Structure formats: C-alpha cells, structure tokens
Amino acid sequence: MGFIKVAEASEIPSGKMKKVELKGKEILIVNINGKYYSIGNKCTHMGGDISKGSLSGNIVTCPRHKATFDVTSGKVISGPKFPLNPKIKDEKSYKVKVEGNDILVSTD
C-alpha cells in the first residue's frame, strides 16, 4: 500500500478541511479533533465541490444541493434537497496516516 504526502498538519486545523489532488483526483482532507480523514471531493450527486461546503462535526454538506456525507467513512447521510437526480452514492474513502507534520493518503 503506497502513501503520498498531500498536506502538512499545520495547514488543516481541527474542524477544518482542505481540497488536495491525489493522482489526478480531487480529495478532501478533514481534521476532526486532531484525527484526519479523507474522502472524494466531488459530490456523487452532481459533482459539486464539497470543499466549498460546510462541516459540522463529522458531517460535510455539499454546497450545491445539500447532500451530506460522513467524512469518517464516506457514507451518504442524506441525499440532495432538490430532486434533480435523487440517486447518490457513498464517497470513496481513503486511508490517512500522519508522520511528523506530514499528512499522507493511501493511493490504493
């Protein structure tokens, strides 16, 4: 399993999130009380940029149609508030580890 450095811990304070690129894919890194999680950054509903949404605890809300995801697992919590396309899938979840000040995400 390969890991790639995507950010430094000092860049993402507790309760904040940051969009990064990993092998051509946008992913979201989130810090919840000093523990880091990573999921896909493009909403599975209609491709909204989740990093521009809001974070409340471990739930991130997509800014486009308000679909919500659990950042610890990528699971859909609720679908979009507008029935344009009600089908929505879980976000891909990535393994994260911290080495010193470096945040690394699995490429697998």
Counting helices, strands and paired strands, the structural category is: mainly beta
How many extended strands?
Answer: 11
Strand content: over 45%
Please identify the oligomeric state. Answer: single chain
Quickly count the helices: 0
Radius of gyration: 13 Å
Shape, per Cα inertia axes: globular
Distance between the termini: 6 Å
Strand order of the largest sheet: 2-3-4-9
What integer is the average pLDDT?
92
What helical percentage do the residues reach? under 10%
Major β-sheet annotation: 4 strands, antiparallel
Q: What string gives the helices and strands in order?
A: EEEEEEEEEEE
Low-confidence stretches: none
Key words describing this protein structure:
108 residues; 45% strand; mainly beta
Please sum up the structure shown.
This protein has strands at residues 3-8, 17-22, 25-32, 35-40, 54-56, 59-61, 68-70, 76-78, 93-94, 96-99, 102-106. The radius of gyration is 13 Å and the shape is globular. It has 108 residues and is mainly β.
What does this structure look like?
It is a single chain. With 108 residues, the protein is an all-beta fold. The protein is built from no helices and 11 strands. It has a 4-stranded antiparallel β-sheet, with no helix packed on it. It has a 4-stranded antiparallel β-sheet with strand order 5-6-7-8, with no helix packed on it. The protein has a 3-stranded antiparallel β-sheet with strand order 1-11-10, with no helix packed on it. A hairpin with a 2-residue loop joins strand 3 and strand 4 (35-40).
